[in-house]
Amino acid sequence: MAKQPMLKFVQIERDMPEKRAADLRKKDFDEIYAEFAAAKAEEQASRCSQCGVPYCQSHCPLHNNIPDWLRLTATGRLEEAYATSQATNTFPEICGRICPQDRLCEGNCVIEQSGHGTVTIGSVEKYITDTAWDNGWVKPIAPVAERTESVGIIGAGPGGLAAADMLRRAGVQVTVYDRYDRAGGLLTYGIPGFKLEKDVVMRRVDLLKAGGVTFKMGVNVGEDISFDDIRAAHDAVIIATGVYKSRDLGGPGSGAAGIVKAIDYLTASNKASNFGDTVAEFESGVLNAKGKKVVVIGGGDTAMDCVRTAIRQGAESVKCLYRRDRANMPGSQRETQNAEEEGVVFEWLTAPVGFTGDAVNGVIVQRMRLGAPDASGRQSPEVIDGSDYTEDADLVIKALGFEPEDLPQLWKTPGLEVTRWGTVKAEFTSGRTSIDGVYAIGDIVRGASLVVWAIRDGRDCAEALLSDLNAKAAVAAE
Q1: Dist. CA 456–CA 198, nearest whole Å
Q2: Would you give per-residue pLDDT tens digits along the chain (478 residues)?
Q3: In a 10 Å sphere around its CB, with 0-12 CB exposed, 13-18 middle and 19+ buried, how is residue 114 labelled?
Q4: What angle do CA 155, 161, 162 make, to 5 degrees?
Q5: Would you list the DSSP string of 278-305?
Q6: 217 in helix, strand or coil?
Q7: What is the Cα–Cα distance from 30 to 414, expressed in whole angstroms?
Q8: FAD/NAD(P)-binding domain location, by residue (predicted)?
């Protein structure tokens, strides 16, 4: 009888790839987790229980066929494992690194619920695809036949790139427009290198270029080119701009020098630390934490990126203020633990109410307690009277989330309908908007969300757009 390759979660304990020691990893922007060795990847994949109803798959926005590629990995069939992974996920090596697996696939693993420790799905996914790149299994797009239709995509983030990939595979001519000098969106300039090294993103962009996708970088729609001109140049347009307008913070002294936006801070750091670019505001110290007492306001993944970046830049101290407690924070618990190991201090149940100094030198803070649940079911923070104190700070980073820009006004396109939150109103799954031939995907529709959801939206939209193009071609042929 053949030996059972799976269901070894009882005999084999969960094991993550080795994590570099905090005192070493906080000195650079390299990824903190080592790669699985082949034997270790096979061993950890073999812990999968091969559920009849795989909750890991159903809780993955892309519905990745996780049990199958775990089994293929456990039995040494890595090229097939990669093909299975790539079939549903445009960028598996990226999702393997940055997805909050503790809230998605791994958090819903059946053996985790039974007390045996989840399968390390993200690490195996990363290993499969990195192995595929190393062995030359990842090939540029080669459509079976070219089509005459062209699609313009505004935004070179994960959603736009996923749509570009799917459309090129069908032979559609694709041009991607983006305001930045490099493609990738937040993958390139928002997420720090210690979570996602930039050569991982750039090689995917290069692969898309090799497959025939045209990139027009440094193009700000509404200024350098009009939205109407893009529409006129293509058979269809996909809006995939993301949301980049930072939520602001009021209170006395909120306009003081030294209070900066998270997106500006992270972009400057990524350009300087990961690409070696000369960034004036980084060089001058405006967007550089070196030697400073840093306070980051917020509790999401962007806040975690900021505090860990500040540590690596040589901050004197780094504190994170969040108005709820640890159990109710929106950011990844894994990232919070990594930050604490690296020296970040979290001040739970605190909220800023003002700032001191013309050049900021302190944050006036109120202590909070959790009261009754709000509409979302989370306990609402309440102020504790008389609990104010001042937190010393030379640099304050606002990581309070992002909102959509006013695209109808910026692009002089009043016919583009938006919701009351300012996001583009688009049809669920297809991305169709109020304008014929114009689609919208990702955060500009959902609001600030996860990379994996943007990839899902890009793939779904590409499928719907292809269906629409085929329908139009059929009508024209009659």
Answers
A1: 22
A2: 345 676 566 567 777 788 999 999 999 999 998 887 788 888 899 999 898 889 999 999 999 999 999 999 999 999 999 999 999 999 999 999 999 998 899 999 988 877 778 899 999 999 999 999 999 999 999 999 999 999 999 999 999 999 999 999 999 999 999 999 999 999 999 999 999 999 999 999 999 999 999 999 999 999 999 999 999 999 999 999 999 989 888 899 999 999 999 999 999 999 999 999 999 999 999 999 999 999 999 999 999 999 999 999 999 999 999 999 998 888 888 899 999 999 999 999 999 999 999 999 999 999 999 998 888 788 889 999 999 999 999 999 999 999 999 999 999 999 999 999 999 999 999 999 999 999 999 999 999 999 999 999 999 999 999 999 999 999 988 7
A3: exposed
A4: 130
A5: --HHHHTTTT--TT-EEEEE--SHHHHH
A6: strand
A7: 45
A8: 151-458
Residue 221, phi then psi, degrees to nearest 5: -65, 135
pTM confidence score: 0.93
Residue with tokens 């014929």: 436
Q: Which of 116, 95, 96 is nearest to 47 (CA)?
A: 116
| Helix, strand, coil percent values for the chain (each to nearest 5) | 35, 20, 45
Residue whose structure tokens are 């390759």: 5
Can you list the positions of beta strands (E) in 55-190?
150-154, 173-178
Element (H, E) at 46: none
Look-up: residue for tokens 């798959």? Answer: 57
Domains and CATH numbers, the chain: 22-134 (1.10.1060.10), 150-243+404-477 (3.50.50.60), 246-401 (3.50.50.60)
Residue count (the chain): 478
The residues, any chain, with a CB within 8 Å of residue 179's CB and separated by 6 or more, are 218, 219, 220, 221
**Tally of CA atoms within 13 A in the half-sphere of 313 that contains its CB:** 31
Place of tokens 């061993």: 43
